[in-house]
Amino acid sequence: MLFSAVKTKTGKENIVAYMPHELPNFELHFHQKQRNKRVYLYAEEYATIDTETSHTDTRAWVYQWAAKLNGYYIYGRKPSEIIDLLNILKNRYKLNRLKCIIFYFHNLSYDIAYLKHFLFEYDNKMHVLATDAHTYLIVDVEGFRFICSWKLSNLPLSLLAKNYGTIYEKASGEIDYSILRYQDEELSKSDWFYMFSDVASQHDGIAGLMKSQGYNYAFEMPYTSTGFVRTTCRKASEKALNWRKHFRRSMLSLEQYNLCKQAFMGGLTICSYFYSGVTVRGNLGHVDFTSSYPARQMMDYFPKGAPCWYGDITSESELETLLSMYCCVFVLTMYNVEIKAGVTAPCIPSSKCIYLSKDHLKVNGKIIQADELSIVVTEIDYKWIMKQYEHKGIKIDKMLIFNRGQIPKWLKQQIMHFYEIKCTMKHSDYLLYMASKAAVNGIYGMTATQIIRSSFQLDNELILKAKETNDQEELDKFYNSRNSFLPYQYSLYTTAWARDALLTLIETIGYNNFLYCDTDSVFYTSSDEVEKRIAKYNETIKQRAIEAGAFVGNNILGVATQEPKITAFRGLHAKCYAMIEEGQLKVTIAGITKAATKWIHGNGFTMRHTMTNAEELENIDNLKDGFIFRHNGGTRAIYIEGSITEEIINGHKLEMASGVIIENIEKEISDTMFTRGEDYSILHINTIETL
Q1: Is residue 465 a part of any domain in this protein?
Q2: pTM of the model
Q3: CB atoms within 10 A of CB 635
Q4: How far apart are CA 298 and CA 544, in angstroms?
Q5: Contacts of 671 (CB under 8 A, 6+ apart)
Q6: Is there a contact between 48 and 67 (Cβ–Cβ < 8 Å)?
Q7: Which residue from 55, 86, 140, 224 is spatially nearest to 458, judged by alpha carbons?
């Protein structure tokens, strides 16, 4: 038995924690739930569980763990003690494969890396649901289902507790992970305070999330954040007259699905090569689209009905007629391609080309010159490619056409239902506001889920390996399932329209004024004339939004809204820029953490030091080729595989198996903008003409 405390939103709360064998008897309440045509019994009381780990350069182990179930705190030092807890609960409540308690790890993939061999020893029929070689969504063993609450909430634990918790908070900055810790050494009150606060705040956050989504029990909830909005929208679709029939009519063949998948592109992110590596100061602007993807789904046309192969196109006028009347997905081949003078936001990503001649030039991964390329596009992409590029000829293949129409009324109603709550409930029902905010963005994520995905299973060494899949069977399974209700083709048109809106705004601002863009935001050099053009653009969008019902009061979807004032901007390439916003230096670089905490050990003292990436950069002009982020360089994971063993390390006997080492790394900034072929890169230059 251990007397400790947990962090609350108003202070601390004293608690009593128990070793597994000390755990008092308490009642659990089980409810029936049908899953995969079988009836299961799930406890309405869910548990949260967390571990702390330590490692050398080659070995890693759990040295502390805690759980919370039905108001009771449970703790231990070794993985085998977690198995003791499972056995005690299984025997006490007569658990089996059809009668289960749900346990939430906040980062299931990390913890299972340490525990999988112990769980397999507990139940050699352990079953997992995994999305890649190191990402687990669910782990099932006899009597228990382990779920990842990070995947469920799409939030780190601190924000899960902050946004959804009502009583407890996560403790932070209490543990120095650079110090080796062992299973047999005494832990401090601070160590246990941190540990128990984690499981308390996690339990509280899950309860708030569950309430915000309208669920009574954890076993009713989905396994991912997208699952919440998917469930709501599926129920709405089931009430819509004849929607199942319309959905089935939109069915793609395997060849058509693969073509649409190749046509799918994400948001456009690029730094203007006119300004790369240059600190631009003065009158600058930064605008951000209001709910860009929902706006596009409310206002623009989408594929409707059955797909149809068109056949050969015999003339330019025939092509133009098709592109003006139908949703078109096709292979575009271009010869002697070159970006037009002055275009600083090219739109052809080299990564999406299905063929690209060896002799080509790209900027930020976007093509600016190529002898030949082939890419799968929509008519929306085609419009911008023709506006931005010169060429000596094109060829069209595999033309797939759809009739044009709006997304279904029931889906538009769901978008505006969530958006209205987001706009009106922030101060009156914060939990509902948070749930609706996530749902507005989640609707796009729901449509963009690939139909055919890799699945993984554990091999004999308990390593996740991809399973062989039959693509046609997976496609058939999708369209035959009552859980499937949205055409995949909505996804590629949502992002295509978002890129269209972004490029239209950049063109409105002027390529010569454009600094940087990322999906739904634009940085630019401002002037009275530029701001007038943006205002005129917004008036057009407002009129369209009002006609489409895409507004709540003065909150209008799709308009370009002004972000806080910036006085300096410096970009190197995509996902790498810094700015001075309202007097504060802010840095955004892919792979670089916003802030990191490290411990400094001196002669007789230990000091915790937190530094933001802006503090480390110090000056906006320091963002240049060769700058090294040593404090905020990020991390890398090193996976260690091994069976259950006991080892002596530094005189301490340790129980361990597999594990993962999270290692801090340094990151050196590269100023590379242009790449010639696949062979070499060229540092930033101010104009293409100098190449």
Answers
A1: no
A2: 0.91
A3: 12
A4: 10
A5: 276, 277, 572, 573, 624, 625, 626, 683, 684
A6: yes
A7: 140
594 occurs within a structural domain: no
Three-state secondary structure string covering 460-486: CCCCEEECCCCHHHHHHHHHHCCCCCC
Neighbour tally for 537: CB within 10 Å: 19
Output Rg (C-alpha) for the chain, integer angstroms: 28
Query: H-helix or E-strand containing 114?
Result: helix 108-122
For residue 189, give its domain range: 2-223
Q: Are strands 47-55 and 99-105 parallel, antiparallel or unpaired?
A: parallel
Whether the CB-CB separation of 596 and 602 falls below 8 Å is answered with no
Query: What are 80-88's contacts with CB under 8 Å, separation 24+?
Result: 80/118, 80/655, 81/19, 81/20, 82/49, 82/115, 82/118, 83/118, 83/119, 83/121, 83/122, 84/20, 84/21, 85/20, 85/23, 86/122, 86/141, 86/143, 86/144, 87/122, 88/20, 88/21, 88/23
Separation between Cα atoms, residue 686 and residue 326, nearest integer Å = 40
Q: Does residue 192 fall inside a structural domain?
A: yes
Q: Would you place residue 120 in the very low, low, confident or very high pLDDT band (cuts 50, 70, 90)? A: very high
Closest CA to 365 of 352, 374, 354: 352
Q: What are the pLDDT digits (tens) for 368-386?
A: 999 999 999 999 999 999 9
CA distance 487 to 304: 9
What CATH number is attached to the domain comprising 173? 3.30.420.10
- Based on the structure, what is the number of domains in the chain? 1
Stretch 147-155: mean pLDDT:
95
